[in-house]
From TrEMBL, chain A:
It comes from the Bacteria. Belongs to the succinate dehydrogenase/fumarate reductase iron-sulfur protein family. One of its GO terms (molecular function) is metal ion binding. Residues 151-181 form the 4Fe-4S ferredoxin-type domain. The keyword Endoplasmic reticulum does not apply. InterPro entries: 2Fe-2S_ferredoxin-like_sf, 2Fe2S_fd_BS, 4Fe4S_Fe-S-bd, Beta-grasp_dom_sf, Helical_ferredxn, SDH/FRD_Iron-Sulfur, Succ_DH/fum_Rdtase_Fe-S, Succ_DH/fum_Rdtase_N. It comes from Sinomicrobium oceani. Pfam families: Fer2_3 (PF13085), Fer4_7 (PF12838). This is Succinate dehydrogenase / fumarate reductase iron-sulfur subunit.
UniProtKB/TrEMBL annotation, chain B:
Its EC number is 1.3.5.1. The keyword Membrane applies. Its cofactor is FAD. The keyword Cell division does not apply. NCBIfam families: PRK07573.1, sdhA_Bsu. This is succinate dehydrogenase. It is a peripheral membrane protein.
UniProtKB/TrEMBL annotation, chain C:
The chain crosses the membrane at residues 55-80, 101-122, 158-180, 200-217. InterPro entries: Cytochrome_b-558, SQR/QFR_C/D. It comes from the Bacteria. The keyword Lipid biosynthesis does not apply. The keyword Membrane applies. This is Succinate dehydrogenase / fumarate reductase cytochrome b subunit. Keywords: Membrane, Transmembrane, Transmembrane helix. GO terms for cellular component: membrane.
Length: 247, 669, 220
């Protein structure tokens, strides 16, 4: 396949960026999208130019490091996958592909396609945990039975990889899906109920401080989430928040 | 030469850890506040250690090269975590987990460490559940288990195919609590580039801020390396792209011995290589072997026809399929340990039965059709469907298989464009885990005082081969339950030391060393990219130091790697400047280290004239082609001391004594 | 407490609650208007009641006005904040791939509805208030029907009226179920809520359009 790439280039956080055009040739449809970018970068290095910076690590859709807005969608046109799981067979020979960083005020660009998602970490610091010390004499795991349906829902919420696609997809750059996934996971488990009030208040407060937008229920986050985290979690967080506010 | 002292406590095996804990020195809470600990790496081992040490009161500085500790590659572990809970009542016990691990490791691990690991395994599950890790549960609300390779009990706890993710997020959440309290200072997008020794003790590190390129000095009273394994020395592996051996290799160069580098686990079920442009390999969890049957065609012409796309695997009759694991190992069948399964696949492919159309034809089938049919019939029975049609059975069966392995099947389909519900998966072994690593004693301390190595970065618990679902167990055991005790015993001496200054000649020298090397890479202006050399190194490693090794190949590899390294330093091109975000520079430093480590790896493999676990020497095998161990001469840990050139490293031995198990030839027949 | 009111969730819940209130009002408004199609007397009777009952005039009407103003003001505040949450725009943004046009453009459908409300106030509410409270004219319980039909003689006004209700339909197509989601209602009844929402969003505006056209064509 031969492709034209429109890629956002920006030297550093303070520099002004712009789209630039590149061509790549003889790309195998079996290559992954990031392997295609590897090929572009090898080409650029051999031409004595600077390669395109982009985040990636596990390349199997679980670490959440890769990002990229591809043709106007986070993680590209596929569903329930990350950019690293996107394969070139999704594109056609001769296509022009637009590649941009995830855009949000809370995700400033570091370089080219690399953004700073530490806002997500700070939301987790605010309450994304259960306060239990490591002692070696915690009660036996089976002493806390959990209804299977709730355990499964908690798991589904817990599969969030923190990639930021929800923010990137949302027209408001809202981080509600991300925040609600963690709030939900713990709200559904008996272990997590004890701190539920403080957790939801603190995490939402931090989320707002980071400058994410408001949720307007467009549902774009759920569609673009590589792990299919459900909007149900946002509704649950709204309930939890209301409950906590009147307490 | 005297055997290396493992500092294993005296006493009966089952009492060692308890006695040890009862007799170590403790640091009082007020003094812990005066002590800093650096932890490099935030995977299961590093993350859990950081959280626990901070809970205890130490000031922790944690470093990771990713943008968040949550991204460490532990997250990619799929199948599960072992623990001797015996919830299934199938005869499991601490001793049995200990025994299985020792045997699975082909009798090349330290008894006392493995026993301790088995002993704390149950605590890990309790701890994780208390943290809110959503393990799979049955309808009674209790925890579910599955079985893994090389054992006869169900002791593996899991969270679908994302157990590593859930456990890592558990450790990450524990870290977050301490970060919020200010007890952990997190240095994301930082890479450790050297360790600083003051008066022979580890007292700090030099790290590069990967965003600004700034070289930073960080001091502490102890340094813990939890930076994972070195599988990426093979270029293609199931490790993350950024997984590297730099931290481990730097401490090796500063005096920490490197143990058993040749013990590498080649995981039998990975998606095969598709072409030259491939950047990494993807694992398909071992749990798939619970229900999948591995086979190749019985007839060479069928294998050829499959490769050429003229014959579909589903059209090959049952009697023309060779379920070679079931044939060779009737008692364990498809659930033989990883090393055995991998070698068996290679044996079939070398004999010409491989089914993949790539340059090496290396691939075999992993087939779920029998499981789908079996589950379908079972479900039909449960649902009271009488005389179900074949379609109905398949539909019901596929639903069961989807509920167990859905995400893995989806992942497979994304990558290969094949539907594994309808046609068998194509798989082949790939580099996955390194049992070797930094040598540590019973305290998890390296040969440098105050310098610790935990998790995959150390060599300690898996011997020559790791059992499935044991890596997560070891990482968390080290971080949550072992290191927090052992490090206290060492730090008890440091309560009066006070803060370690960073404006000392030791830090100056280490920083200069780091900056010189970076300038050398940047100013080299060669003609090849870093990946060019990494791929070449991977090629040598896979062909000559891979699944089957021989003396000649290994000697050649040692020379070829040394030559490649020389070429690298002459011809590598690293674009950009040092004081900015520069991913090529990061890669260059890591590959430079792999180019040294690979040579030591081959040397270790050459030295070990036996076959054991993941190390298979073609010269040492039985008439049936199985691995032949040499207990008389090689029941030791090979710990290498750096002297300036990897191939001239000095070998130190730690003799392994087995007081509680009898050394047997491992048989899974 | 003030912190909670400032939070993004409190904002969106208040938006949803005002919306739910307006949904009920709209239904009520529709039913009364629809009576004008059935019988002039019934319409006069209902309008007279609404126009003179003190509870409705002095309690419900101010609440309604507050609800409307609040919904618009909060809508604009959220829009401004949401716009600023993405300070650099995408060069290419494929919103259609993951969300409906309606959900992404509530502000525009809302602005059209606001403009229409201006017209509506000019047509009905201001004359009504002037009639009752400024000039304090005597109440004629049979005046309402006549005042209604006279407005629907102008084809331009009827056209604008219909257009505004198309935008109201678009607004409601997202807004109805969205309000439920915002207050945390997402469970096994959600698919039913979505269906009811769709029916409401299409039928009510269609009904208003029908009423307008009915009187227009009757006046010809």
């Amino acid at each position: 396949m031969n492709l034209t790439l429109q890629i956002w280039r920006q030297k550093n956080a303070d520099a002004k960026g712009a789209m630039e055009t590149y061509k790549v040739e003889n790309i195998s449809p079996d290559s992954s999208f990031l392997e295609m970018l590897d090929i572009l970068n090898d080409q650029l290095i051999n031409e004595g130019k600077e390669p395109v910076a982009f985040d990636h690590d596990c390349r199997e859709g679980i670490c959440g490091m890769c990002s990229l807005q591809i043709n106007g969608e986070p993680h590209g046109p596929g569903r329930a996958i990350t950019t690293c799981q996107l394969h070139m067979r999704k594109f056609k020979d001769g296509d022009t592909i637009y590649i941009e960083p995830f855009r949000a005020k809370a995700f400033p660009v570091i370089k080219d396609l690399v953004v700073d998602r530490s806002a997500f970490d700070r939301i987790q610091h605010a309450g994304g945990y259960i306060s239990v010390n490591t002692s070696g004499n915690t009660q036996d795991a089976n002493a806390i039975p959990v209804e299977k349906e709730k355990a499964d829902k908690a798991f589904d919420a817990a599969t969030c990889i923190g990639c930021g696609a929800c923010v990137a997809a949302c027209k408001n750059a809202s981080a509600m899906l991300f925040t609600s996934a963690k709030v939900s996971q713990f709200a559904l488990l008996p272990q997590g109920r004890i701190e539920a009030t403080e957790r939801v208040l603190n995490m939402v407060k931090q989320m707002d401080l980071e400058g994410f937008g408001n949720c307007t229920n467009t549902g774009a986050c759920e569609i673009e989430c590589p792990k299919g985290i459900s909007l149900e979690n946002i509704a649950r967080m709204n309930r939890e928040y209301l409950k906590a506010s009147v307490k | 030469m005297a055997s290396l002292d493992s500092k294993t406590p005296q006493g009966a095996l089952a009492d060692k850890w308890t006695n040890y804990k009862n007799n170590i020195r403790l640091v009082n809470p007020a003094n812990k506040r005066k002590i800093d600990v650096i932890i490099v790496g935030t995977g299961l081992a590093g993350g859990s250690a950081a959280a626990t040490l901070a809970e205890l009161g130490y000031n922790v500085k944690a470093f990771c090269y990713q943008d968040s500790p949550r991204r460490a590659h532990s997250i990619a572990a799929q199948g599960g975590i072992n623990a001797a809970k015996n919830y299934q009542g199938d005869g499991d016990s601490v001793y049995r987990l200990f025994y299985d691990t020792i045997k699975g490791g082909d009798y090349r691990s330290r008894e006392a460490n493995v026993y301790r690991l088995a002993e704390v395994s149950a605590n890990i599950i309790d701890q994780c559940v208390a943290q809110g890790v959503p393990f799979a549960r049955d309808y009674g609300g209790l925890l579910d288990n599955r079985s893994f390779g090389g054992v006869l009990v169900s002791r593996t706890f899991y969270a679908k195919g994302q157990t590593g993710q859930q456990l890592l997020l558990g450790a990450y959440s524990a870290m977050n609590r301490q970060i919020a309290k200010g007890k952990i200072t997190m240095y994301n997008r930082h890479e450790m580039l050297d360790v600083v020794l003051v008066n022979g003790k580890a007292r700090g590190i030099i790290a590069r801020n990967l965003i600004t390129g700034e070289i930073e000095r960080h001091s502490a009273h102890a340094v813990v390396i939890a930076s994972g394994g070195y599988g990426n020395v093979f270029f293609l592996s199931t490790n993350a792209m950024g997984s590297n051996a730099t931290a481990a290799w730097k401490i090796h160069k500063r005096g920490a011995y490197f143990a058993n580098p040749c013990y590498t686990q080649i995981h039998p079920t990975c998606i095969p290589v598709h072409g030259d442009q491939q950047s990494k390999l993807t694992l398909m969890s071992e749990s798939l072997r619970n229900d999948g049957r591995i086979w190749v065609p019985k007839k060479l012409e069928d294998a050829k026809a499959v490769r050429e796309g003229k014959l579909k695997p589903t059209d090959i009759a049952e009697e023309d399929r060779d379920y070679y694991l079931e044939r060779r190992y009737p008692s364990f069948g498809n659930l033989v340990p990883r090393d055995v399964a991998s070698r068996a696949a290679k044996e079939r492919c070398d004999a010409g039965f491989g089914i993949i159309n790539n340059s090496t034809n290396e691939g075999v089938f992993l087939d779920f059709s029998s499981a789908i049919e079996r589950y379908g019939k079972e479900q039909a029975h449960i649902q009271g469907v009488h005389n179900p049609s074949r379609e109905k059975i398949l539909q019901l069966g596929e639903e069961v298989v989807a509920s167990k392995y859905g995400n893995l099947f989806d992942m497979y389909q994304q990558i290969t464009d094949d539907n594994p519900y309808k046609t068998p998966m194509k798989i082949y072994p790939a580099v996955h885990y390194t049992m070797g690593g930094i040598w540590v004693d019973y305290n998890l301390m390296t040969t440098v005082p105050g310098l610790y190595a935990i998790g995959e970065a150390n060599f300690s618990d898996h011997g020559a081969n790791r059992l499935g679902a044991s890596a997560l167990m070891q990482g968390l055991a080290d971080g949550y339950f072992v290191l927090p005790y052992t490090i206290g015993d060492y730090l008890a001496d440091d309560i009066r030391t006070g803060p370690i200054p960073t404006n000392t000649p030791e830090f100056d020298a280490a920083e200069k060393h780091v900056t010189d090397r970076i300038s050398q890479l940047i100013n080299n202006n060669g003609k090849h990219s870093v990946d060019y050399f990494h791929k070449k190194l991977g090629h040598i490693m896979w062909n000559k130091v891979g699944m089957a090794r021989n003396a000649q190949g290994l000697s050649e590899a040692i020379h070829e790697i040394a030559e490649l390294r020389e070429q690298f330093w002459k011809e590598v091109r690293v674009p950009g400047v040092p004081n900015e975000f520069n991913q090529e520079l990061e890669k260059a430093g890591r590959v430079a280290d792999f180019l040294e480590l690979g040579e030591l790896f081959a040397r270790d493999a050459l030295e070990r004239n036996e076959s054991c676990g993941g190390h298979f020497r073609e010269e040492y095998r039985t008439e049936e082609g199985e691995a032949r161990r040499d207990d008389e001469h090689f029941t030791y840990v090979a710990a290498w001391e750096y002297t300036g050139k990897p191939s001239e490293a000095i070998l130190h031995k730690e003799d392994l004594k087995f007081d509680n198990v009898e050394l047997k030839t491992r048989s899974y027949k | 407490m003030s912190g909670i009111i400032k939070s993004s969730i409190a904002r969106k819940v208040s938006m949803a609650l005002s919306a739910l209130f307006l949904l009920i009002f709209l239904l009520q408004h529709f039913l009364i208007n629809f009576s004008s199609v059935l019988s002039a007397d019934m319409f006069n009777e209902l309008s007279h009641f609404m126009g003179t009952n003190p509870l409705i005039q002095f309690v419900m009407q101010p609440i309604l006005i507050f609800g409307v103003v609040f919904h618009f003001v909060m809508g604009f505040i959220l829009e401004v904040r949401n716009k600023s949450a993405r300070n650099v725009k995408y060069v290419k943004y494929n919103g259609n791939a993951n969300s409906s046009w309606m959900s992404r453009n509530m502000i525009y459908s809302g602005i059209v509805i606001l403009a229409f409300l201006g017209l509506h106030f000019y047509d009905f509410w201001f004359p009504e208030i002037a009639h009752k409270y400024v000039h304090a004219l005597p109440e004629d319980p049979n005046r309402y029907f006549g005042e209604l039909v006279v407005k629907f003689r102008d084809p331009v006004r009827v056209g604008l009226y219909c257009l505004a209700f198309v935008f109201l339909a678009l607004h409601l197509l997202h807004g109805f179920s969205s309000a439920f989601q915002s207050v945390g209602f997402n469970n096994k009844y959600t698919p039913a809520v979505q269906k009811i929402g769709k029916a409401y969003a299409i039928l009510i505006p269609l009904g208003f359009i029908f009423i307008a056209l009915f009187h227009y064509f009757n006046s010809l």
